Write the C-alpha cells for this entry.
Amino acid sequence: MAKTFVKGTQSEGVLTSIKHFPGHGDTATDSHLGLPVIEKTKAELLETELYPFQKLIDEGVDSVMVGHLSVPALTTSPELPSSINKDIITGVLRHEMGFDGVVISDALNMHAVSKNYPTKGELEWLAFNAGNDVLCFAEHIEEGIQCILKNASEAQINKSIERIWKLKAKAISEVDSTLELTDPSALNKQIAERSITLHNGTAQGIEHFRTTNFCTLTLKRFTTDQTNQDIVKNVMAMRKEVENETEILLLLTPPQIKPTNNFGFLQEEIDFLNDLITTKKVVLYHFGNPYALQSFKTDKTMATVIAYQNFKEFQDVATAHFMGTLEAKGKLPVKLN
C-alpha cells in the first residue's frame, strides 16, 4: 500500500518521505514524551521494521524521516536516539541500505531528545553529524548553525546542500511553475461519503430521533485563546441550557489533533458529556480522531457516528446522513476500548 501511495503522489509531482526510520510501529512509548526502546535482533529488524523501508528505498523514495528511538541492535551507542545516531543513519540507512537521498530528523523539540541536550546548538550538531540533511523543529537555529559551521567539514555541508538542491530541482521546475493547486473539495466530499461510520446504534434509531423535539449542542473550540476558566464557564452554561432537554444532537470536535491530555478535552468537559450521554437520549456526531471517543461512554448513546474530520465537506456529509439521505458505509479502522 505504501508503495502505491508513493507512486501516486510522485505521479502528481508531490515529494514523498517515509517515516519513522528504523521503525516506530512496535513501541509502547510516545516519543513526544520519552525514548521508545526496540529490543529486537538485527535479523528480526531486517524482516520486520527495516523491510518496508528497504523496499521503498529500492523504488526511489525521495526522503526518509528518522525517528527518536533506541535500537541497540543497530548501534554501539544505544543511549543515542536513532535520530542523532551516526551508526544508524550513516551506517545502516546510507551505507547498508543504500539510501543517498535527503534524510530528515524527527522534530528536535520532542522530549525524547530535547530534554537531554540543554546546551544550545549541541543537539542540532549531533543531528547533522549523524547524517540528517534537514533538521525538523530545531529549537536553537542560530546556535545550531554556528555549531555545525564550527565542527562540520566543508565536504559534509556541501553533500547535504547537494541532496537538498537535487530534491528541490525535482519538485520545482519552470515547466511546473504555472500550475495551480487543484480544488480538494470534490475529493474531500468523496472521502467523507465513503468513510462516515455508524459506530453505535442504528439508522432506524436516528430516523426516530429526528421526529423528536431534539436540541442541538455543539462542543468545539471556536478560538485558540480560551483559558481553562473560560472553558469551564462554558460547560456550566451548557449544563443549564440543556437541563430540561431530553433529546440532544451532540456535535463533537476534539480541541486538538494529537492525543496528549485526552485530545485537549478538560475533565470537566468529559464529565459533562458523559453525564448527558447517561441521563439523556443522545445522538453523537464526532468530527475527529476516533480514539478521542475512548473518553466517552458511546455505548450509552442512541447512536454515535464518526465523520473523522471537521472540514466543511465532512460536516455536509454528516448532515446528509442525519437527514437520512446518505447511508453510512464506512468501517472503523481501529479498535476502541
